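Input sequence (100 aa), recorded before submission:
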Amino acid sequence: MFKVKGKGELLSKFEKGRIFAEKEQGLLNRRFARDLGRCHAVVGNFVKNPARCRTKRSTGRPSLLSEGDNRKREASNTNKSCTKIKSSLELEDCCMGRDE
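Predicted structure, token format:
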């Protein structure tokens, strides 16, 4: 049979090149997945969307608070001065609360 690589090992540039070349020849994913020693699902996912390969997926629950909500919350829950709040939130220099 063939040895399947462990979970989490990324496709090398060589493997990606072989997948593109063999796909252009019209071979089936399962066939050249077996030749590479990879799972057919890995090859199929790469063929479907090569740009997604090696990109970090967002994990966790998205924040319900906007950037403005975070600033308001920080200002209301602390006894910090405006400059300290601005530096802790890593805001750029701007005129806060002034109309220009």
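Checked by second reader. The mean pLDDT is 77.
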